[in-house]
Amino acid sequence: MTELDQGEWRFVEGGQLVPDAVVSAVGYTSLLDQPALHRGLPSPALTLVLTFDEPVISGFERSGQDADSTHLVLGGLHTRPAYITQPRVQSGIQLAVRPLALRRLFGVPAGELREQAVDAREVLGSGAEDLRQRLAELTSWPERFAALATYLRANAAEASPEPRPEVVEAWKWIAWHRGTGSMSALARHVHLGERQLNSVFKAELGISPKAASRLMRFEHARQRIARAVRERTPLDLAAVAHSCGYYDHSHLVRDFQQYAGCSPSRWIGHELRNIQAGAGQPAEEFAV
C-alpha cells in the first residue's frame, strides 16, 4: 500500500482488490482552500466512487446544468469529459472497474450505463449505501480496502451470465493493438461481420469497437504525457502522437479536445497535482 502526499491532496493506493475485475483502488483525502472543478477524462474503465464526506456533484456539461449529487457514483464508458465539483473537504475511494467484469460484480452489463454516470445504488442496490457507511466508519485505509475487497469478492462469487466470447476477445484484441488495429481485421479475428460485431459489442459495453479503440489509444497517449510530467522529462507531443498510432501531433490534439475539452498543455495545467500524485494505472492493465 502506497501513500502519495501532494499538499492539499493525499492518495492511498489500495491495489487491485479483485485483480480480474478491478484495475485499481485509490483512497483519497483533500483539504482545499475552495471548491474546485475536476475533469474526469474518458478511459477504458468504469469508475465507481464512494465518498465519505460531501457528495460528488458530477455531469457532462461544464455549466453544471446536468449535474447530479450523490455519495455513490458509477460511470460507464464515455467519450467526453465528465466535470466533477470537488468540495473543499472530501475523502473516499475510487475504483477503476474492468467493463467486462461489471456483469460478474453487479449483475448488469456496462452497456446499460451508456455514457452516463448514475447513482450507484441504482445498479448495486441498497447494500451499496450500507457498504459506504461502513467504510466511512472505519478508521484506517487498510481496514477500508479489506472490507471493500470482501464485499466485491462476495458479489463476484455469485453466478451471473458471462459476456459473449466474441466481445471478450474483441476487447482483448483492441487492448493488444493499443487501439490501432482496423475494424475489418478485428471482425475477421472474432469471426463476425462488422455490423454484427458492432451491435453485440455496443450492447455489452455501451460504445462501438471503433470508439473503444480510440479510447484505448488516447489512454496510452495520456499515460505517456502524465509519465513525462511526473518524471519531469521534456514533453514531445509529436513523439507521443507517433508512438501511440496517431497520424500527427494535430490528430492527438483533436482527440484531447474531444476527450478532455481542452488542449494537452491546458489539461496538464489544470490537473498537474493529480498527475504528479500518480493515481491511476498503465493502459496495459485494461487488457482483460
UniProtKB/TrEMBL annotation:
Domain of life, source organism: Bacteria
Keyword Transcription: yes
InterPro entries membership: AraC_XylS_family_regulators, Homeodomain-like_sf, HTH_AraC
Domain spans labelled HTH araC/xylS-type: 182-270
Record bears the keyword Kinase: no
Keywords for this protein: DNA-binding, Transcription, Transcription regulation
PANTHER family cross-referenced by the UniProt entry: BLL1074 PROTEIN (PTHR46796:SF15), HTH-TYPE TRANSCRIPTIONAL ACTIVATOR RHAS-RELATED (PTHR46796)
Protein name: Helix-turn-helix domain-containing protein
Organism, as annotated: Saccharopolyspora mangrovi
Source lineage: Bacteria, Bacillati, Actinomycetota, Actinomycetes, Pseudonocardiales
